[in-house]
Specification:
Elements lengths: L1 H14 L12 E2 L9 E3 L2 E4 L2 E4 L5 E4 L6 E8 L5 E8 L5 H4 L1 E6 L35 E8 L3 E6 L2 E7 H7 L12 E5 L6 E9 L6 H6 L3 E2 L9 E2 L8 E4 L2 E4 L10 E7 L2 E9 L5 E7 L6 E9 L2 E6 L2 E9 L9 H4 L6 H6 L14 E8 L2 E6 L2 E8 L7 E5 L6 E10 L24 H13 L3 H33 L3
Antiparallel strand pairs: 1-13, 2-5, 3-4, 4-13, 5-12, 6-9, 6-13, 7-8, 7-12, 9-10, 10-11, 14-28, 15-18, 16-17, 17-28, 18-27, 19-24, 19-28, 20-21, 22-23, 22-27, 24-25, 25-26
């Protein structure tokens, strides 16, 4: 009989899984074929739908910063033509050293007969030698794909992989190289005055990798599905400004909506939210106050920074916003409470980050926010910045939100764990559905709640719907614990 139940459990579990081939990445054009919109630099011109380097051409870089992506482009070399693809470029200095330069070179030319191994086409200049590149004859277009992840670079020329590098290992071998330490930056062409041409330049940005099964075992569920705005409210006027592609939620900072922020449809009580975020655009230079991390008070000194600003709203309140910004104090503070003069000095100090833990501009950051009762804890990139700080009079319940403050920002891997009951259970210790009982599909509860919330905005009714949903969640969790315990019992020898 046990084997019969096993088969039923397996069938029910598999029926809820998605068995699909890996989806091809969604690309966007980096060059419109008409002008250099989205690029900055001098010495390049647009000719017949191509970007051409002139004799004055040096660096031409994207306005945006990029971290993890697939970049496709075509290039045409004149005899002896020399250029380069800059990645992780900070926008200053020699891209080959402050960033990394991938060689674009007619290495068949007699003038390059004495090249060093790291100077051939496709090599990472000074650090990684490419395999022999299958370049087309001079005068023919070549196709290149460059794939960049958090710790790797891969170059494919005309369908052949010629370069693969692990950036973590490369950093150890080249400790003085500044660019290899970076994990984000501008993309650019590094000209040497040769008339090299580029066309069909497109990019597919990708999200940082996560161990989804491990996060699920901790009790987290996705708040953002990586493919749509399901569960979120996009106001009229924000279309095309908040966008989704390849698991990344992009915001260009230019929404025309009355409410420019992005809010969840559902309201939450005690939660832990885990998510990735990064700055994709640039901001103006501004002087911002230096804040004492011990007291939360301004020191009277300022620092010139690139102004970038956003935040994560908790429980539907503007004041209970965890700041994401480039101020000297760093991300993680709660500005609405730190600057409230009616509150005590202990509150100000509590909501001030103990250090700045932000990664370099453009790189992905991972933040975890826990809101339990009126207590807030914030961790950024593995460092705890806020420890059970009190937020007096914070609402007991409300929506979660991503703030607009005019800066271009990306989000990914937004997961949530509700703590009102699940926090009492170590999900990592709960076994999978037992072999002795059929699994129960609670998907109808989730669908019902979503439909009710989507069609009803009356506060009282929505509160009652949420309470019913909470009780169903409690029953679901109790069932998991009971079933897991019964499975352990059934596994014991008679």
């Amino acid at each position: 009989m046990i084997h019969q139940w096993n088969g039923l459990c397996l069938a029910v579990l598999l029926s809820g899984s998605v068995m699909a081939a890996e989806k091809a990445p969604e690309f966007v054009e980096l060059f419109n074929g008409k002008d250099l919109s989205g690029w900055q630099g001098k010495g390049y011109e647009v000719v017949d739908g191509t970007i051409v380097c002139t004799p004055e051409g040096r660096n031409l870089m994207t306005e945006k910063r990029y971290a993890e992506y697939v970049l496709d482009f075509e290039f045409l070399l004149p005899p002896g033509g020399n250029n380069g693809l800059g990645i992780h470029y900070p926008g200053e200095g020699d891209a080959a050293y402050t960033g990394m330069e991938l060689q674009i070179l007619d290495d068949t030319s007699p003038q390059y007969k004495d090249l060093k191994d790291y100077q051939f086409h496709g090599s990472i200049y000074t650090m990684v030698a490419a395999k022999k590149a299958p370049l087309k004859p001079v005068g023919e277009w070549n196709r290149e794909r460059v794939t960049v992840t958090a710790n790797s670079v891969r170059v494919e020329l005309n369908g052949v992989v010629i370069t693969e590098a692990n950036l973590d290992e490369l950093e150890k071998k080249n400790p003085k190289h500044l660019g290899v330490k970076r994990r984000a930056g501008h993309i650019g062409w590094c000209g040497h005055g040769d008339r090299v041409s580029f066309r069909n330049i497109r990019i597919a940005e990708t999200a940082p990798a996560v161990t989804a099964e491990a996060w699920k075992a901790e009790g987290f569920v996705p708040l953002f599905d990586g493919a749509s705005f399901t569960g979120w409210r996009v106001e009229k006027g924000s279309e095309g400004h908040w966008t989704v592609a390849n698991g990344v939620l992009h915001y260009d900072g230019k929404s025309q909506a009355k409410i420019k922020d992005l809010w969840t449809e559902k309201e939450y009580k005690d939660t832990t939210i885990r998510f990735d975020w990064r700055w994709s655009g640039m901001g103006p230079r501004m002087k911002r106050p230096i804040i004492d991390p011990a007291t939360g008070l301004e020191t009277g000194k300022t620092e010139d920074v690139e102004e970038l600003d956003s935040g994560f709203y908790l429980r539907g309140a503007i004041a209970s916003q965890v700041n994401l910004w480039n101020w000297p104090v760093g991300s993680g503070e709660v500005y609405g409470y730190r600057t409230n003069k009616k509150l005590s000095k202990d509150i100000w100090a509590g909501v001030t980050p103990k250090e700045k833990a932000d990664h370099a501009l453009g790189e992905w950051n991972r933040m975890e926010i826990t809101m339990k009762g009126d207590r807030l804890t914030v961790t950024l990139n593995g460092k705890q910045l806020i420890d059970a700080a009190q937020l007096p009079d914070v609402p007991a319940m409300g929506r979660l939100g991503l703030q607009d403050h005019g800066s271009a920002i990306d989000f990914a891997n937004i997961w949530v764990k509700e703590l009102w009951f699940n926090g009492l259970i170590d999900h990592s210790q709960i076994r999978s559905w037992p072999r002795s009982l059929p699994a129960i599909n609670f998907g109808s509860r989730v669908k019902l709640t979503k439909v009710c919330f989507a069609r009803c905005w009356d506060p009282l009714t929505r509160y009652l719907i949420n309470e019913v949903d909470n009780w169903l969640r409690i029953f679901q969790t109790v069932w998991v614990v009971f079933a897991a315990g019964l499975a352990n019992h059934c596994d014991r020898p008679a």
